[in-house]
Write a sequence for this structure.
């Protein structure tokens, strides 16, 4: 232990970069005498170890390892398969919708948002002919994470508690009211829209708008 502490102290004093610091590509981190370079996140030149990516550096003094985690990777660890998330529909494609999600089931509010996709086959147990019959841009939905991809997640809204939890009228912007299993009606202009609605539509206690 005494040995470790001495080593830790001397390295800390000699080094400009410390564990948890943000580093940029090309920044010198240490020498190969001190640490074992990480193949993924560092490179070596002339006996020195440099950052191969921008992110947060971690020095493991006991194992003499260095690695760099990007901010997204660090945050992404909090998203797991099966998580129930709340997000806002950004756009509609022919066979899927794209959305941002920020909130893990009202408990955790991430600083960054994540990007999700819902394929038409993952919207409802019932056949959805057109995406527009289930979602519109700006709808706030609750969905479940079913697959992790490189920079995004596949989600599903199959199930009674998943789907739209808040929606504005696409004609006049007024909050829509539920009038049927899959129908919402505007109290202002009378516009009726089809949706995949969660069973607690507009009965959400916390503030969902950002
Ligand atoms: Zn309206």
């Amino acid at each position: 232990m005494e040995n470790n502490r001495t080593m830790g102290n001397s390295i800390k004093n000699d080094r400009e970069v410390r564990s948890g610091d943000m580093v940029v590509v090309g920044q010198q981190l240490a020498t190969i005498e001190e640490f074992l370079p990480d193949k993924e996140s560092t490179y070596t030149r002339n006996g020195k170890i440099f950052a191969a990516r921008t992110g947060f550096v971690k020095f493991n003094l006991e194992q003499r390892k260095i690695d760099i985690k990007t901010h997204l990777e660090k945050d992404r660890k909090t998203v797991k398969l099966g998580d129930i998330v709340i997000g806002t529909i950004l756009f509609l494609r022919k066979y899927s919708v794209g959305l941002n999600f920020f909130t893990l089931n009202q408990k955790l509010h991430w600083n960054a948002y994540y990007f999700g996709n819902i394929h038409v086959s993952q919207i409802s147990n019932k056949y959805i002919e057109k995406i527009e019959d289930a979602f519109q841009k700006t709808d706030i939905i609750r969905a479940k994470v079913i697959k992790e991809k490189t920079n995004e997640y596949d989600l599903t809204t199959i199930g009674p508690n998943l789907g739209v939890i808040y929606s504005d009228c696409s004609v006049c912007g007024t909050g829509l009211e539920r009038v049927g299993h899959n129908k919402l009606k505007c109290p202002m202009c009378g516009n009726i829209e089809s949706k995949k609605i969660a069973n607690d539509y507009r009965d959400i206690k916390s503030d969902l708008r950002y």
